[in-house]
Design brief:
- By secondary structure, the protein is mainly β.
- It has one domain: TonB-dependent receptor, beta-barrel domain (Maltoporin, Chain A, Beta Barrel), CATH 2.40.170.
- Helix content is about 5%, strand content about 55%.
- The strands form twelve sheets. It has a 22-stranded antiparallel beta barrel. A five-stranded mixed β-sheet has the order 3-9-10-7-8.
- It is globular.
């Protein structure tokens, strides 16, 4: 029986069900009692962070942390979390398809469609949350912290590359205050956001915030849909209730609603093609596409064109309820964080993104509702010197059932016209539709303990976390009509796993002076392996089962300041070893032949696979504030993240032993897929990256003109996995404006991507194709095929590119 496109799409839907800077500004601490005390003891130029689950000066944290304050996000018009990468070198936040927000940090990438736990875990108000939801709407933010390196102790879920923590603003109990900001651009984008705090008493306060945002996402128009353009609209509202009945207790209850509707077209480049299709009107009762239409016109990067005849649309409706409470018991503080999230994702898409079969829409409709409940309880000693300790318990559970309705029409391969019995041109179709049901249940329990000892300038910290991870997932696939040999019962697959990892770490911090710290850290993280759900039938076990990933990392660093905080600097070096690194390899051609050739299945699939890897790197930052009217900052990162003589699935059509898609799809070697031994990079990112930003103010009485800039640089590099030479990228954003008396209002004009570079940031390994089938399963002699299974080729590679230059205007006010 043929499973040509079935397995690829089934895994996609299954993974959809699993959905998961320097600056010289004053960052606000969270308003718990320890944080308030930290603010009182801090210098006004200090940045206060909660990377270690307590409020500390950034300089005192024995970890590489990049901080973006809410003020910076407003200054640089950061309306999407993915743009935070402009403030953090070594961080890449992308969305290549409109649905899978991908995070890469220190060279370690993560594809949400893999179904694995994230390599970079995202937290909203200290609760782990999926990136698809968190990245959608950013407004009224207190602070974003990018924690670099393995995370396996302080927060509930382990991650090998780092964590991103996002803290929203909380109400003030003493002051009525708020802001409003409106932005519009020449590319039909707008963003309106506002917030206000209402302190009803010194024990009860409310903060209300809201957002309406619209834009053209990737600014791509579809030439086969009358020039229709990508479009996004997001509406969100948040209310936070603050209760502080005494100086020892505080609690914050936050509810956030999100409604997002994204319609995005996949950008392509190439000459297009005239795919081979049949003029024969019927075969087995199936209508054949029109004869010899083209997939579309030639398109370059600057054409910003798409050719799909269907549409990709993602609708996200999310409700999040979050409760955080702290109770100071004297010797220790008891903290609780709990959250309930309900999300419903509806995805409609045309999977023939290159229009390889003109006149045909390979439609897919996915509905993914899921519930996530999370709770954490911590007890932490309050002493700042001597022996301190902390213990905690964490629990999270996610449930939901994904339902997919999908067209899976099979296209027959071209036939030999000289055959006297079946002189047909290929292109006829076998109609097939699928209904795929994927219930999932994932639970994690974890328990942690840590000790820290401070004597004089020396602080030692260490701890462990024990986790119990349980994952149950099944798939039922229903056919309409039923293919030959398939009964009315669904094709079912069940995957489950139970894991008991121990993670944690240790740090040594030595304060050479109040303004200079040295530190060394060790971190150990873990990600559970799993069984691929709905992988191609009878394919080899190494392509269906992955082993757990274990990561060990060593880091040394120095943090310091000079000239009364006018100069701040950091320098970090690190080495990381990943055993059984969980990676994902997309669009891999497979060919399964069993039972002496009686069974054969081929097509393209996205496989999870283990491979060893090593990472070496160095990061540094320098912030300057020579006087009160000039702020300058620069950060750079060099990371060499490479596979370590890893044997991985690849496309090796030419049989050269290296990844390529030259010629017709074929498997090199005796396996079900081709394998390549590589020492190539782990993700499609350059080794080096740099960010720089600055602001110069020109005070003139009550009014202050200013100019600020934000520069990110990514050098070019050659990608072995897609055989493509990426160009260097320089993204420069410029802002010029006027600030009113006491900073109560601000008007500025800006240009994003002032240089108007439109360079490719991601590209597929070959042209987008539509698979074809030829075999005895449909009563056809495979010998009659011209190049068995030769796919229809669209003549286009799918890409993502830098958005073109955009001019905008922002008016904001504070009170």
């Amino acid at each position: 029986m043929e499973f040509l496109k079935l397995s690829r799409s089934a895994l996609y839907c299954c993974s959809a069900s699993l959905l998961v800077l320097p600056g010289m500004v004053r960052a606000q601490a969270e308003p718990s009692k320890p944080a308030e005390q930290a603010e009182q003891n801090a210098n006004p130029a200090d940045i206060i962070v909660t990377a270690m689950r307590s409020a500390q000066r950034l300089q005192d944290v024995a970890m590489a942390v990049t901080v973006a304050s809410g003020e910076q996000l407003q200054k640089f018009k950061i309306f999407d979390v993915k743009d935070v990468q402009q403030l953090a070198p070594g961080l890449e936040l992308t969305n290549t398809t409109g649905r899978n927000n991908t995070t890469t940090l220190r060279g370690i990438g993560f594809d949400p469609d893999s179904g694995n736990s994230p390599a970079v875990q995202v937290y909203l108000n200290d609760i782990p949350t999926d990136a698809q939801t968190v990245y959608t709407a950013i407004y009224d933010i207190n602070q974003i912290e990018v924690l670099r390196g393995p995370q396996g102790l302080l927060r509930g879920l382990s991650a090998p590359a780092g964590s991103i923590t996002i803290a929203t603003q909380r109400p003030d109990f003493n002051v009525t205050e708020g802001y409003a900001q409106a932005t519009a651009t020449d590319r039909h984008a707008y963003n309106v956001q506002a917030a206000v705090t209402l302190p009803f008493s010194d024990t009860f306060a409310v903060r209300v915030a809201g957002l309406v945002d619209g834009n053209r996402i990737n600014n791509v128009s579809d030439v086969n849909r009358g020039g229709e353009t990508s479009r996004s609209r997001t509406e969100s509202a948040r209310i936070t209730l603050g209760w502080r009945p005494s100086s020892d207790f505080s609690a914050y209850l936050t509810y956030q609603y999100l409604a997002a509707d994204n319609k995005q077209f996949q950008q392509v480049v190439g000459a297009g093609n005239t795919p081979t299709v049949s003029v024969f009107p019927y075969l087995f009762g199936a209508v054949v596409p029109n004869a010899s239409p083209t997939s579309g016109p030639p398109l370059s990067v600057t054409d910003r064109g798409a050719v799909e005849e269907g549409v990709f649309r993602l609708q996200n409706s999310t409700h999040v309820l979050n409760l955080a409470a702290d109770y100071d018991l004297g010797p220790a503080t008891l903290s609780f964080i709990g959250a309930h999230q309900y999300t419903n994702l509806t995805i409609t898409r045309d999977q023939d993104v290159g229009n390889a079969v003109p006149g045909y829409i390979e439609s897919s409709n996915v509905v993914t509702p899921y519930l996530v409940d999370t709770a954490e309880l911590r007890l932490t000693s309050n002493g700042k010197t001597g022996l301190g300790w902390g213990i905690g318990a964490f629990y999270t559970k996610q449930t939901g059932t994904t339902v997919v309705q999908q067209d899976q029409t099979t296209f027959l391969a071209p036939y030999n016209l000289s055959d006297p019995i079946l002189p047909l041109v290929g292109g006829a179709t076998i109609p097939l539709a699928l209904r795929i049901v994927v219930p999932a249940n994932t639970q994690t329990w974890s328990f942690n303990g840590n000790l820290h000892y401070t004597t004089g300038p020396l602080t030692l910290t260490g701890g462990v976390r024990y986790s119990i991870i349980k994952n149950i997932q099944s798939t039922d696939i229903y056919f309409n009509p039923l293919p030959a040999g398939v009964t009315a019962n669904p094709l079912s697959d069940v995957a489950s796993g139970l894991y008991h990892p121990v993670t944690g770490g240790a740090t040594i911090d030595y304060a050479l002076s109040h303004n200079l710290n040295l530190y060394a850290t060790y971190g150990h993280s873990y990600r559970a392996g799993g069984h691929g759900v709905s992988t191609p039938a009878l394919i080899s076990g190494d392509l269906t089962q992955t082993n757990p990933e274990k990561t060990d990392s060593f880091e040394v660093g120095i943090k310091g300041s000079a000239m009364d905080r006018k100069i701040n600097f950091t320098l970090t070096g690190y080495y990381q070893k990943l055993n059984n690194f969980l990676s994902r390899f997309t669009g891999i051609y497979y060919n399964v032949v069993r039972f002496g050739g009686l069974y054969q299945s081929s097509g393209f699939f996205d496989f999870n696979y283990n491979a060893n890897a090593t990472i070496k790197g160095v990061e540094g930052s320098l912030d300057l504030r020579p006087n009160r009217n000039i702020d300058l900052g620069a950060s750079a990162s060099y990371t060499k993240a490479r596979f370590d003589n890893a044997k991985i699935p690849c496309n090796d059509y030419a049989g050269t032993g290296v990844s390529n898609q030259n010629g017709n799809p074929a498997v090199t070697g005796s396996g079900d897929v081709s394998y390549c031994v590589v020492n190539s990079r782990l993700a499609e990112v350059p080794d080096f990256s740099l960010t720089a930003n600055g602001e110069i103010r020109f005070p003139t009485g009550d009014y202050t003109p200013f100019i600020r800039g934000l520069l990110t640089y990514r050098p070019g590099f050659f990608s072995n996995s897609v055989q493509y030479q990426y160009q260097d990228r320089e993204m420069f954003n410029l802002f010029v404006g006027l600030r009113g008396p006491e900073g109560r209002w601000e008007l500025d004009v800006f240009a994003r991507n002032l240089l108007n570079q439109q360079r490719i940031t991601n590209i597929s390994g070959g042209d987008a194709t539509m698979s074809t089938y030829c075999g005895a399963g449909y009563g056809i002699n495979p010998a009659l095929c011209n190049g068995k299974g030769t796919p229809y080729n669209s003549g286009y590679r799918t890409i993502n590119s830098m958005n073109p230059r955009e001019f905008g205007l922002t008016l904001s006010t504070k009170w």
